[in-house]
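Assemble and predict.
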Amino acid sequence: MSEPLVEVKNLKQYFPVRSGMKTQMLKAVDDVSFTVGQGETLGLVGESGCGKTTVGRTLLRLYEPTAGEVRFDGELVTDKNIHAMRKQMQMVFQDPYSSLDPRMTVEDIIGEPLDVHHLCSGRKERREKILELMSYVGLNAEHARRYAHEFSGGQRQRIGIARALAVNPKFIVCDEPVSALDVSIQAQVINMFEELQEKLGVAYLFIAHDLLVVHHISRRIAVMYLGKIVEIADADELNEHPIHPYTESLLSAVPIPDPEITRARQRIILEGDVPSPLNMPSGCAFRTRCRYATEQCTRECPALSNRGGGHQVACWNR
Amino acid sequence: MENPKKHLLSAQIDLSKFSEANFIPATEDEKRQQDVMSESTTFFKDGMRKLFKNPLAVASLIVLACIILTIIVAPMIVPYRYEEILSVNGRRDKGAKNLAPFTYSEMEQKYIAEGGTRFPHIFGTDEQCRDYFIRVVYGTRISLSVGFFASIIVLIIGMLYGSISGYLGGRVDLIMMRIVDIIYSLPDMLIIILLKVVLDERLSFPAGSFLAKLGTSMVSLFIVFGLLYWVGMARLIRGQILSIKENEYILAARAIGASSGRIIRKHIIPNCLSVIIISTALQIPSAIFTESFLSFVGIGVKAPMPSLGSLANAAREGLQSYPYKLIFPALMICLIVLSLNLLGDGLRDAFDPKLRR
């Protein structure tokens, strides 16, 4: 494999939480490492509150990471060069309703990155560039003067994507870009992501909680549980041979619109609730709900280990 | 037509069903219809359109415009001054005391009979033989300008304080807001009266300056308002900025690489502007009320300068005989306060993004 585009090493993001007199550390992201190759899509799945979004935001330095490093194209991303790096790394947000400024026209929203990075010399060039971007994402030129509230959810998300594309980035963090949209629009937007990738060669970190969506778009998938990555594998490999018990249960919960299959397959229902990230179980975070849990799991936290073909799993027993 | 689904469960539309033969291109006419439907409006225009659709807001705008026009034009037309004691041919007109509206004193009647012309006393005269109409007009002037300037002072202090507190957050916000809480918990009428009394004594301006022309009582009134009423505005603006700061579009702007200055200028201020305008509009009537109250109690503007409150106070004495002397200034206060309140409500309905659609 060639040199990875984005390399995340031992990324940690702790948030201080004050409860009464003492300050506790909420480990939103705990020791996460992964790579994203040129023009590749890495899917990141996990349930709500497991730290997916935090990974994305910390990666882009919207939060100051507690520890760990991020390399882009071999270069370490630091506070000093982050402004320049933002030209290379962009983000698409989850909620198309709150991620666009209601007082700005589409033209100004898409043009803002151009202004911030001084990417165009004149008004005419700016306008042309904006129209080009709008045509990339399937918006008409006459939409340019309108306000965000005049658009539907899918169109708003397209505006958000055009804004991210404006600086011509090589890498885009897509933070649940389709989960706020209804299913038919989801398909449109996801296909658009794929087309843009083919055309422009951008790499994605595609965050979602819907395994189907992630499987559709990603080459590789990482599964997160309580701030840790528990399994990384190629999309098809993960789908067919999940190793980690958490991935197993996630896959068994994916709805399949065929009653025959649904009846035949075994649904793995996890017991108990997700432990509070403030009060993590010792050893493996998943052990409280795991049916294979042994005594070793309480003592030591398993690290990701290679199971062949780039399939990495963090589990003692599987 | 080849269009394999990428995934078995994909919701992708089967394009083979949509051959070109099944579609007719839109005619020019139909295209134009689309254009008309999608006519774009700016936020401001849209708000103004909504404002003008609100009959109450329009009515109050008209009333306010009439009042403002009157207080500008009337002193040019009416030949009396507000502190002028009426006289005919240079002789003091002692009979022109407490005249009813549109009546003349004996001396004036004689003067008219001899062929002179006399401007009518539209609201009559007061107990010191002064034309009452011009006094009410000047009183309205004073009251409106007190309301207006006091709100601007409140706005400036409140906006600076609130936006610093809201934007910086954390410990700074905590300390600044506790100060606000302390000021908030003081009984404001008591403080206003105490401050007013002290300031009236202490303030002095070089003769001939603009402030001296306004008079110490007016200036101390502004200061009192500025010092006390900014707390509400500061809280409001802080709250606005706190909630705007949490929006994803601010995060998006940061992800783009925009600086703090740019975020404040381009995102935060435009988004809380409408709330600021509206609350300023609603601040004016409350300032007018307080001023009227102070003048009514007797510590407002200094005689002979009239304000609506002091006029109402003076009218109390002969209330049974001359009730109209209370009615005119009271009516004026009601009209101003009511129309400003209704206009403020209308502005809020038209511009508040949360009430849209």
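Residues 7 and 71 of chain A are 5 Å apart (CA to CA).
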